[in-house]
Amino acid sequence: MSERDFWGGRSTIVRRVLRAFPVADTIAFFREIGVPLHEEAGGKLFPDTNRARDVLAALLREAAAAGVTLVAGCRVTDIARLQPPLDVARGGPEPAEGPDATERARFRIATSRGELRANAVVLATGGQSLPKSGSDGAGFALAASLGHTIVPTTPALDALRLDPSDPLHRALPGVSQDVELAVRIDGAIAIRLTGALLWTHFGASGPVAMNASRHWLRAQIEQRPASITVSFCPGRQFDEIDARWTRRAAERPRQSVQTTLAAMVPAAVAAALLEALAIDNRIALAHLSRDARRRLTRALVEWPLPVIGTRGYQYAEATAGGVALTEINPATMESRLCPGLYLVGEMLDVDGRIGGFNFQWAWSSGFVAGRALGKSLA
Ligand SMILES: Cc1cc2nc3c(=O)[nH]c(=O)nc-3n(C[C@H](O)[C@H](O)[C@H](O)COP(=O)(O)OP(=O)(O)OC[C@H]3O[C@@H](n4cnc5c(N)ncnc54)[C@H](O)[C@@H]3O)c2cc1C
Hints:
single chain, binds flavin-adenine dinucleotide, alpha+beta, FAD/NAD(P)-binding domain, 3-stranded antiparallel sheet, 13 helices, 2 domains, 7-stranded antiparallel sheet
């Protein structure tokens, strides 16, 4: 886990926050609260019981033990900054608690269940992904009303919708394969991503397509031309694959193009590719024309994905964009614009690639804010 696993603003800030509460601390924290973790393929961590509700139960137990009052089913609708009393504004001591503290509070918080006053507020309202979970972007308006800049948001970790005329996804729903995607922006390759791609009835999903989605969407909001191509032979170039066909044709001239191709990609993909290219799948390698061979090779290393969009916030697992990181002090997660306001988690302009990185960002930034608040209270 490092800042290289994240996209969005200012990698130095991301690095600093991650280092304050790295993965080892996350594992130790969960073990301490009764949720031992184990590692699965690709370095992903899961609770030993494999039950999400055990994570929730442990966090609730721990919050109760720490004396936290939880108010559920309650939306914050507005946060107003109150004028600090002159002595506090000049750096004088702040009252810790009691009626005096409430009177001198820095914030008035309007909620669906009445008004609160507080000296400090932590905004942890998430992004816009899966709005039915409550993370519907309302927190961005709260942060903006307190002076923060919101870097335009887009879904991230979302599946790609492909033009219905694309022959591959229609022929291959449910088929998964390892590929390399090249995302081109302004005609140049902006990023290459490798991993599993899952063909679906609407387009392309799976980790690699989901990672690519934010790059394509960011280009759209910046009005820059973007395109995505698939290589079914990750890490290999056109010339290498073309030479392989020629070699194979010399070694096994009577082998069919379908059989040869099925040794390189799943059989269903081989059949769909040949059909899309209008190449007879029974043709022997010796009879495969130079033109057909080169078209096939080109398709194997650079198959264009006709992306028409993504599935949107209702399906996306994360949100790109958010509160500008430069407006946050990474040592405390406190706002540089609004003293007493802390911002953490997905509402910030950081989004991680698929694989647990967004959770870690939430844990790390939450820890940094919690530690700073603890110190300020002490
Ligand atoms: C389907 C799905 C699968 C995911 N899988 C993974 C994964 O495997 N690994 C990974 O790392 N990440 C995953 N993520 C992303 C991860 O869940 C988020 O990055 C992480 O939960 C962000 O934490 P957060 O505390 O910042 O915000 P959230 O977890 O979104 O929590 C924000 C909370 O604030 C509340 N809220 C919002 N506005 C208000 C308001 N105005 N008043 C009161 N409350 C409010 C919301 O109801 C919500 O409870 C997934 C996300 C989704 C949607």
